[in-house]
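Troubleshooting: if your tokenizer reports a length mismatch, compare your output against this known-good record of 238 residues.
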Amino acid sequence: MADTTPWGAKAASLYDREYAARYRSHDDGLVESAAYYAFVVWLQQVCEMWSSPFDALDLGCGTGRYFCALRGVRTLVGFDASPAMLAQARHPLHEDRITAGAITLVHGDLMAQDFGAERFDLVYSIGVLAEHVPLQPALVASIARWLRPGGRFAFSTVHPESASVPRTLMRRLGSSVGTLLPAPFKQTLRGRLLAGGLYADELRLRELLAGAFAIESLERMQSEAHLHCLCVARKAIS
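Known-good structure output:
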């Protein structure tokens, strides 16, 4: 693995062999999950945007629970910070339904990883960015670099208005009076409410993607755990 940041080291230690085994066992129960199938349908709709085989990267693939949703994929790279999760991804959920031509599993630290320029047509991530990994400008720039011109970045975030976000006194006050503050204070408060990139709403996504990407769709979705933003953005063609 390349250089490791504190985020990568934390993920590798948290998602150990025992955790990965429990997580993979939970995958087998997802046939009863409406939220899981909502993500599957959304990802399949993204895949339908291509008329010919394409190359994809799953950022934070975990146990590979979304590999079976992909259609039309020529090569797939599943990337994760946890070796134990990747070990489970060798035999993912609905393995018999996977149609990707070739799958490569890569262990690494997302905050330090480099896949090279213009390698993928699709980079997707579900339940990782602005949830477990901070979604920040440097990471968006890296993803734009990895994508070919016209390639797409499809991902979910946790919305800061999600009921799962702790409603601390500071957060409640910030939400109620933030619009009344002068611009510099408003920006500082907004940064705190977004927890340094661990949550992202529609405004923040537009800010982060501006310039390198054109947003094709941006919607909210409620799962059992969170209120999410679902975003599909296309890399600008220079």
